[in-house]
Amino acid sequence: MARRLPKKDVVIVGFGWTGSIMANELTDEGLEVIAIERGPWRDAPTDFPPTYMQDELRYRIRHELFLRPDQLTFTFRNKMDQTALPIRSWGAFMPPNGVGGGGVHWNAEMWRFLPSDFVVKTHLTERYGASFLPEDMTIQDWGITYDELEPFYDRFEYLCGTSGTAGNLRGQIMEGGNPFEGPRSRPYPTPAQAQPFSHTLFGKAARELGYKPFPQPSGNLSQAYTNPLGLKMGPCTYCGFCEWFGCSNYSKASPQTTILPYLVRKPNFTARDNSEVIKINVDKSGKRATGVTFVDTSGEVWEQPADLVILSAYTMFNVQLLLHSQIGRPYDPVANTGTVGRNYTHQTVSTVNGFFDPKKFNFNPFIASGSIGMCIDEFNGDNFDHGSHGFVGGGYMGQVQTGARPIESALVPPDTPKWGAAWKTAVKENYLSTVKPGTGVHGSFYAYRDIYLDLDPTYKDRFGRPLMRITMDLKENEIKQNKFLTDKFAEIIKAMGADKLAVQYRTGPYDITTYQTTHLNGGAVMGSDPTTSVINRYLQSWDVPNLFVLGASAFPQNPGYNPTLTVGALAFWAAAAIRNKYLKSPGRLVDA
Amino acid sequence: MKDNHSRFEICRRELLAGAAYFALGVSRSSATVIFDHLPWTPNAGDPPTAATPGPWLFFAGDEGKTVEALADRIIPPDPETPGGKESGSAVFIDRQLAGPYGRQDGLYVRPPFLKGAKNQGHQSEKGPAQEYREGLAALDKACKDQLGGKAFFELSDADKDRVLNGLESGDFKLDGVDGRAFFEQVVKDVQMGFFADPIYGGNRDMVAWKMIGYPGARYNYLDWVSRHNEKFPLPPVSMTGRAEWTTRTQR
Ligand SMILES: Cc1cc2nc3c(=O)[nH]c(=O)nc-3n(C[C@H](O)[C@H](O)[C@H](O)COP(=O)(O)OP(=O)(O)OC[C@H]3O[C@@H](n4cnc5c(N)ncnc54)[C@H](O)[C@@H]3O)c2cc1C
Ligand code: SF4
Question: What pTM does this model have?
């Protein structure tokens, strides 16, 4: 029934950040590449022009740029003995849709992981002993090291023009940067962004408390930049409509600003939009992918044969497509067998809002960018001794407020009525003098045996396929970690001069209705052991060697940083392995 | 599950139905093949649709009056800033309920509808439009039953506030409707209309933005990012500009 298209060398499933990177790399190699994207084509002048992009209701509240749950959603429960129910409207995270993927409407906070994050199991066991880790915690090493990934971090940063201050240049600690970061081979391509008042004040307060604050690395550019592909970006204007929105200024790093205009001109590249891949096809042996089947918005079904399949559909859809295509063995938490769906994680975030004296403080909080902010990293990873604290992991924290769009940012101090004259007066008095960091505390989320993804027994998507089921909860380790970090964060907000604080810890049970970043990870993790990973260190499927799976689905657990710089670096790393190794001798790059 | 390959075979009828359904909601929804150049057409944007002036589109009978009365107690007028009614929050809610939001367009509305934990999210076949219809009817009935035959909008301000405080605390019960949840929803929507761009019917003349000092749909603060603790001097603009900018008001 499917109409068969002419065979390509490579088919790319999902045309967001990683799909764009891989398409550009493999077309450079001379291969015929097609990228297939579920959502529409998107560009700044058409889809987010400066005449009407600043629309909080349309883009933030009604989620205009995101996937619609009636097209595809998931079911959710906290514990294995509960009945999972469908996520009928998005809350805890926002799945992307459309060309550019999450790159269109992300903040562009661009963090490298710590060297110890990649070997976290070994590192923690050596330092604290195996019994220090909770029994059901299933963290593992990545099978790759920071030093191996560094050149690819560098490439992605230079592709994006990332603005920041180096903290560790080839081993030398640099004043004003993050002293905890791994060594970097070059400074950031552009200097750090300017910091508005409240962000600057946070830096000052943190320094006075003995910390080493630094500007958050930002894909919202501090100045004009021409990237290695010759594409030009403009300076960010601190418009305050960054995350959830597209950038009208060509100032936010995205596939649109950093890759697509260059890629699309190549004669060996084609893309199809509004076309959803519903299956990765494998031959009878089950060990070779033959291409993909997709359906376009008119209901036409197509088959795209290819020699190499790149799955780059974002964490959730990567795992969902593997399960629906029956590639790899689904994870079974009871028997502790299988791998697809295992080690699913999120991000442990919280915040503290500060209410300041309006007579003394005017923050003009609407002036900000998506990845603005001053941060500290003293409490991330294993940068501090966990011995006495009884938990592992950590995160960065900072005043990273991205604007003050009024529907979400007209806050009132604790104990104020929620409506009526007193509410109205309080909103009026506090709007300009409130600090609302958003994701002020950005903590790690480690993996557990009973937190995972599988197929739901009851609910179906519009094609009649089972929805993917999320079993997810917050464990004591993460709750303790968050309490510790949030208290430290509150001290700094207080030291900035806040009169009143609204401290919002992250507590259990995990709540699918409140936004906690779209940093979803795992389910198709990388590693060196096929019994505990879906893909090898080159992101190649253990089961189907002509299938590579890109994205944060590869993270064995989630460190205390935003994922995408690592996600992009891993895509470049996998591309290098395909170009230098796989194409010369197609087959498994690592022996099982 | 493992052996049941046929579960994943999708019949063409389902594909067509499934695909056509979501195509309605997406602006550029027909599949295209892209090669050689960026598929860009001048002036192909999808600007927002302004709320139409005129009569209620969704509210019927006294519903509009009730929501205006609610809006004015949630955001009471004061000498400097109009209240929820005059600034248009009821118009905002009416237009939202008459549109895709009211109908739950794009949300997952397949059965079964089971009662779950609060942290599993809204699990009802009813969209906001129907919930408003039922909530307003229940409020009307409860007021008439308990407050001398008067509808909510006929009560004194003090009595209105007593009802609202009762809804908020759960003491004032509605028949067949969760009064507290309904009130929470109304508060959220009234305040949302107050702060959203005036193009959607609330926040008339940007009164809410003027009240808090938010400069609106501006796009460039480069000159201001490093000016710390100074009040931003410019008045707000909306997506449609400012009244003063149109020739009509200049005359
Ligand atoms: C609001 C928001 C803010 C964020 N901010 C940050 C940040 O500041 N820093 C950071 O590091 N990360 C951030 N992220 C996360 C970031 O967007 C993602 O990590 C990144 O985009 C992942 O890249 P990817 O290639 O894996 O997926 P994406 O870029 O999301 O691309 C996947 C693409 O695949 C498509 N697709 C899915 N299924 C199919 C299918 N079946 N067939 C065809 N196409 C399909 C999707 O429509 C999508 O376009 C943010 C995310 C959101 C939503
Ligand atoms: S904050 Fe800067 S990068 Fe972000 S959308 Fe605005 S101008 Fe673009």
Answer: 0.96
